[in-house]
């Protein structure tokens, strides 16, 4: 962490550190210093909680189409590799902002403002994202959160005892991505959720993420009985990804508005699954609330 530009905020119960690069939460600890985020072991994945904008997932051949023009974007877009500015800061909150620039317009020819506010209140980390369109043309975009939580969480419980509990039963099939291209496969797969419960296991992620493109729940809880738990609420995101590099000490719980290109997708970006379009002068909000329940 020593080379990162980290902003620290705190409540009576939690401390968060957020990197100016990507407006990415690098650390979330309780009053005892216990860490709830990934260890970012470079043997697996060095991410912590990237912000996904203006796309989620991979593009077909890394490119998208707008009318007769084509543009290239990396997986999950450019926000996670961009330096945000601090617009407002206090002891328990900070507001980050990313705006369009000459560099972004070369790959994404739209005016935008992306604000992300982090606020700690007791045992809760509130994350509020706002995408605004200050331009004269409609703004197509997708957005996602990508937090990676420690697995196992603090408290001494076994990794194998951790479950993901969905707010509602989720019997519908899930989607997976093609291992070679990172694109969304056309077929669906039987859900690994048993009623409300998912028992995560490294073998589940050998085919990459579990993806719910239709979802009833807007809240999940991750943890083990007797140990710490985290509840992730995402009232504005209709999709969810759950992922890890098999064997790593983290589990990503990822609320999404958007998804990877389907295999063979060659339509206009406006027609990409999960893309929203903002009229000039409009804005759209996404919220994620992470609530920590400390171990007994």
What does this protein structure show overall?
The longest helix is centred in the middle third of the chain and has 6 residues, at 102-107. The chain is an all-beta fold and 296 residues long. It has one helix spanning 102-107, and strands spanning 6-10, 14-19, 24-30, 51-52, 63-66, 69-72, 85-89, 93-99, 113-121, 124-132, 139-141, 143-145, 148-150, 163-166, 197-198, 210-212, 219-223, 229-233, 239-243, 250-257, 276-278, 283-293. The protein has one domain (6-156, 230-293): Beta-galactosidase, Chain A, domain 5 (Distorted Sandwich).
Helix/strand class:
mainly beta
Main sheet properties: 9 strands, antiparallel
Q: The CATH topology, please?
A: Beta-galactosidase, Chain A, domain 5
Query: Given this structure, which CATH class is correct?
Result: Mainly Beta
Strand content: 35-45%
Distance N terminus to C terminus?
30 Å
Radius of gyration: 19 Å
Q: Architecture in CATH?
A: Distorted Sandwich
Instruction: Please write the string of helix (H) and strand (E) elements.
Output: EEEEEEEEHEEEEEEEEEEEEEE
What is the total number of structural domains?
Answer: 1
């Amino acid at each position: 962490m020593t080379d990162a530009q980290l902003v620290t905020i705190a409540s009576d119960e939690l401390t968060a550190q957020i990197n100016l690069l990507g407006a990415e939460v690098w650390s979330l600890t309780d009053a005892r210093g216990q860490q709830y985020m990934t260890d970012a072991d470079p043997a697996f994945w060095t991410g912590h909680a990237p912000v996904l904008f203006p796309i989620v997932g991979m593009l077909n051949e890394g490119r998208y189409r707008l009318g007769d023009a084509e543009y290239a974007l990396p997986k999950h877009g450019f926000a996670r590799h961009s330096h945000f500015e601090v617009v407002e800061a206090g002891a328990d909150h900070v507001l980050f902002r990313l705006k369009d620039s000459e560099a972004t317009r070369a790959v994404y020819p739209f005016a935008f403002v992306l604000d992300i506010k982090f606020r700690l209140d007791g045992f809760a980390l509130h994350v509020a994202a706002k995408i605004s369109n200050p331009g004269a043309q409609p703004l197509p975009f997708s957005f996602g959160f990508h937090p990676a939580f420690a697995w196992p969480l603090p408290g001494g419980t076994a990794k194998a005892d951790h479950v993901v509990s969905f707010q509602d039963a989720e019997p519908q099939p899930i989607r997976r991505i093609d291992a070679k291209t990172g694109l969304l496969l056309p077929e669906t797969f039987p859900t690994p959720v048993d009623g409300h419960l998912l028992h995560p296991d490294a073998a589940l992620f050998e085919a990459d993420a579990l993806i719910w493109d239709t979802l009833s729940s807007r809240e999940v809880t991750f943890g083990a009985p007797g140990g710490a738990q985290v509840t992730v609420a995402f009232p504005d995101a209709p999709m969810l990804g759950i992922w890890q590099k098999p064997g790593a000490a983290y589990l990503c719980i990822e609320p999404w508005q958007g998804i990877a290109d389907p295999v063979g997708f060659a339509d206009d970006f406006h027609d990409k699954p999960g893309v929203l379009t903002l009229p000039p002068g409009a804005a759209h909000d996404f919220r994620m609330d992470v609530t920590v329940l400390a171990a007994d």
